[in-house]
Write a structure and sequence with these properties.
alpha+beta; about 525 residues; about 20% strand; 5-stranded parallel sheet; about 20% helix; 2 domains; Jelly Rolls
Amino acid sequence: MLSIAALYGFKQYLPAKIFTETGSTKNVVVDSLMLEASEGADSAVAEKDTLSNTKISFQETNGVKFPAETFEDYKGYQHLIAFYEKLMQLENTQQGNVRIAYFGDSMTDGDMIVKDLRSSLQNRFGGEGVGFVNITSESAPSRSTLSHSFSGNWKTQSYLNVKNPRKPFGINGHVFFVKHDTVSPVWVKYKASKLNHLSSLNNATLFYGRSGNTKAKMQFIVGADTITKKLSAGNILNTVPVSGGDVKSFRANFIAADSIPFYGFNFDDGRGVHVDNFSNRGNSGLPIATFNTNLMKAFNEKLGYDLIVLHYGTNVLNYGSLNYSWYEKKMSRVVAHLRECFPGVAILIISTADKSSKYGTEMKTDSAVVPLTLAQKRYAVQTESGYVNLYTLMGGNGSMVRWVDDVPAYANKDYTHFNFRGSKKISDLIYSQLNNGYEKYKALRGGKPLPKEPKRDSVFQVARPKPVQPVPVSKPATDSFKLKPAAQPVKKPAQPAFKPAKPTVPQPKVNQKPLEPVTAPVIKDTANAQ
């Protein structure tokens, strides 16, 4: 009783935010690199933003130059030109592929947000398959885009808590080893969902690393068939296909596979857009700096990435500091390392979303949200990366409270994470900004000839595209997040195919070059007012 009386007596002298007021977060893990980096930052004072009044100009890239931007409204479309160029080639020719690596934390756990972004891109540009999937995953039970199960005799090392792994971490930040077990088999099983573009396991291929083991085998069980394949582990990165085509499900048994580092399976049809979800609960993004450069180059050689998305921040808000200069500097080094690992790749930074904490008796935007978004924007500008301010896109100050209180709700009662409905809205916001930049790029591109494409596959032969006029936009209301439907609804094809449509334009006059029609529908940007 004396303690309670003392607490009430001293309440007026205590900080407004002293205890966590939100519900418990399931399986929260915070990476060790962030714990080390954030030491001593809790008591620091927020630094003055020296870029707040800066006008950011760009240098021409491949004949295209976006208008200058203010720091406040920075999006960095100029730095996504390499990605936009690949999209335009894909849209014009209906051939080739574009691949995105989406790195995130618990916000993308279970393929949340990413699955809807993948769906939007594949609806427009084509593509079949869920992409790269781990050997084991803590989020497997909650993933709706794939049925994934595995035996309990796997040993996992993660870059969140292991500094010196037995073998280098894969592109997913993990490395998996079989536990020696003479009785129980070591296995993993995958089954395709019934979702659009994900109804098959396309070209299922195992990725694994180097080992001196020469006796290892894989036993693939596909329906009533059993296929046994030897695992040759002589290269830094090795692959073996499950079968010659698409399957609905399979089980893989690992036989005498001790000491071999396994990374996961890839599922894609090799055409259109593919998005890999590399989510890790508790990740700040800093562990990416531990990637082995040579191994990442080997992954890039086989998969070929055009865009890397870094969607972090949720786990960096938990320490009460308003000074994120340490995070800004370290994430700048992460971006530099990624460019070394994946030469020529475009990079997109997505800021933290709004998060609410209890001040007194009221839930309000956490005081650390805005300082962190500014730090994320600063390192995006400094590293010449694209930037999505998720905090402002979802409504800014107090928006998380509105998303939780809305009926139906769009976020969970922890005032941090989105539910499936909210994840779809967030995906639409991100897609809308990307699409806005893409349409502006096509308009700036005009009828200029395309540069040769040295990366992967064959060089695309593309006719001069018809100039695209900028799409007029108007600022939506705070709660308006829905994109307008495409001019022509996209129907699920019976079989994935990328055959150019027959030209519908009339024959050109003499001395005029024919225009190649763009058959893919254009989605107008209505969700992003800027």
